[in-house]
Design brief:
The chain folds into two domains: 2-118, no CATH class; 140-372, TIM Barrel (Alpha-Beta Barrel), CATH 3.20.20. 30% of the residues lie in helices and 16% in strands. The protein has 16 helices and twelve strands. The radius of gyration is 22 Å and the shape is globular. The chain binds pyridoxal-5'-phosphate. Pyridoxal-5'-phosphate (PLP) binds at residues 141, 143-144, 147, 149, 200, 370.
Amino acid sequence: MSSLNNNTAVSEQQKVSPEIISLPIRSIRRIRDYQQIAIYKDVNPLDWEDWHWQLKHRIRSKEELSQIIKLTPEEDKGTDKAKGKLAMAITPYWASLMDPDDANCPIRRQAVPVSAEFLVAPHEMTDPCAEDRDSPAPHLVHRYPDRVLLLSTEHCAMYCRHCTRRRLVGQTEEKSENSAGKFDAAIDYIKSNRKVRDVLISGGDPLIMEDEQIEDLVQKIRSISHVEFLRLGTRVPVTLPQRITEKLVNMLKKYSPLWVSIHFNHPKEITKRSRIACEMLADAGIPLGSQTVLLKGINDRPFIMRKLMQELLQIRVRPYYIYQCDPVRGTQHFRTPVATGINIMEKLRGYTSGYAVPTYVIDGPGGGGKIPVGPNYILSQAKGKYVLRNYKGKIYTYLE
Ligand SMILES: *Cc1c(COP(=O)(O)O)cnc(C)c1O
């Protein structure tokens, strides 16, 4: 990584992009925390704030990673093996949040491959939600009556080790993403299906594309008259908050109503820097939601989940879903029993703001779609009479 520091010194004077300058001064002061990490201590804050710099300097090898954390034997083996699909890629920003000494650090576990990823349980699948089967055009999944999922890229800023689309994303070699006309068939399909009123642009991560490519895609979909609702599914506010620039936000703002769903899993992910990214989006009138994956040893305790949900509300992100971790190959070490999720829901509802209570869902293996699961509050129901319990277990009768 010594070359990293040299490059940085050379580029210090030249690389002052207008996007970075537009960050408020108060923010620049807040972002210097990374300089406490030895290998990043000489990195110019203007480089650190440049999302292209962050992508270019992602950690992709064991050698680089071992300069930041003390690898355990499991991590040592895992980083050797994680090649091809879902290769390791960790932004310097994300790496700066990792605990160098604690292998159970939630930030670290989501990003660093371990040997357990290469064990496949009998019920695990390559495509657990059968998305490939419900694909009427390349890059498109049409499962529900009125909405579609567009898989816009096969890349992310950081590859989450629990990724449900590991069959598609994170090939080591970056192939050129946007061949002209890549989405033509998908867009034609949406155009010719008047029932599609909601388009969810996900991936991979759509915000890994350049602003112009994102605008081209969003503008094409926005111009379809029956599409009422547009969403972007992204993790960059969490893994690469530098990507949320004034320029990007001003562009997205033009296509309102456009909502953004962010993948937050742990309170440690809510940093001064990710907060700025969310504030910029929210200030532009973009409603924000969070989709959280229930992960063993990371967020499977009720008090951690409650803290996450409450802190999300503080940064104007509305908790939307908690997902049971899909039975995708190599994720057994992340999966909890369903009862763990139900218990978390039990400890949220009533005990905290309703806005902090998402819906816990299992994506029906084989293509069933999202199925809500949770505590049962209806004890019995007969002839116009419901016997209910409240969050404290007290019983109430409701007569119709
Ligand atoms: C999750 C998902 C959607 C969106 O579902 P909502 O419940 O509306 O958020 C749409 N299509 C597919 C295939 C999905 O997996």
